[in-house]
Design brief:
This protein is mainly beta and 357 residues long. It folds into two domains: 1-34 and 93-132 and 248-357, no CATH class; 140-244, Elongation Factor Tu (Ef-tu), domain 3 (Beta Barrel), CATH 2.40.30. The chain is built from four helices and 19 strands. The chain has helices spanning 3-10, 50-58, 64-69, 201-204; strands at 39-43, 85-87, 129-131, 140-142, 150-155, 167-172, 186-193, 207-220, 225-232, 241-244, 251-253, 262-268, 274-275, 280-283, 296-306, 312-330, 335-342, 346-347, 351-353. The chain has a six-stranded antiparallel β-barrel. A hairpin with a 4-residue loop joins strand 16 (312-330) and strand 17. The longest helix is centred in the first third of the chain and has 9 residues, at 50-58. The protein is globular, with a radius of gyration of 23 Å. Residues 1-36 and 90-113 have low confidence and may be disordered.
Amino acid sequence: MNRRSNSAILFSVFLFLPLLFSAPSTAADKIDVVESETGFYYTIQKGDTLWGLSKHFNDSAWLWPELWEGNDQITNPHWIFPGERIRLYKKSGSQVITQTDEVQPVVDVQPVAVIPVKPTVGKKATGPFFLYPSIDRVGFIRKPPVPPSGTIFEVQGRKVLISEGDTVYVRPEEDTAQGVLIPGSRHTVFRYMKPTDERDSEKTIGTQHHILGIVEVTKQEPDMVLAKVLKSFRAIRVDDLLMPFNERDSKIELKPGTPGIDGQIITSEDHTELTGDYTLAFIDKGLADNIQVGQQYSLYSKQKTVLENDEISSKSLPPVDFGAFLVLHTEQTTSTVIITSAAKVIFAGERFRTPIN
């Protein structure tokens, strides 16, 4: 019997965060529509062993065969080498979530654990990291909004929807700094959105910047520029806006959460009614609250005691964690996160907190 069969028999209940298979796409921004490398990883250091890594990340050294199972590049579990990248697993109970437009999810609920992260002091970080190749498509909420550097006013071929390879005509904003829209420069295509349907949401929360794609300026004219669409993350249209492109690192170092944080989900990035595993969402905490990229937080719900006469007691039971997310981008008062696990569907307004170890 080979090592895969042995490890499958010994350890059968695991949740692998990268989700390396494709599933039907929905309106939500799912990890399954991006590169399969997405997920939690760790770079092996001198002295590491699968036994020790399993004990650290899975709380049991005896689970090392499952760690070996998920890393085919390791031919001998007794020989792992510094600098080699391995996938990490997170122990969890099994969960099945089936969702259509109106059907409620079927859930086998078990506790969800967050990958432990030890802070590094006075040395270069060498701990686990989250790899998200599509980081450049992650939107954000900012107040005040980013001023656009230009507006798409036409496309060659007069198309309704603009896609990769198309050439667009851009009208620079009057106050755009000289030299921003020059040949060879890259720019992010985006669209302003209200974060919620509330009347004053842009004033109280900020303006959502919905990232649509990336263009590169090819020619500069006196009153316009021509640009080629390099990437189209979502449908681009005439009247969409441009801002300078800032490349972000897809390798996100995991960091401990800030103590004492308690906040809520604002909405999913694509404004779907329900969010779930591997959805991008916004939270109401940011740099002002010491939220940092790479931190993990727990989603929780409050439980109430039900008496024998079916009345609900005013005394609540301790909160129960049912999921987790990772911070991908931070603004002053908001952040963009990715739901990495959930034992039930997630609604806007759901609460989160610093993980309790």
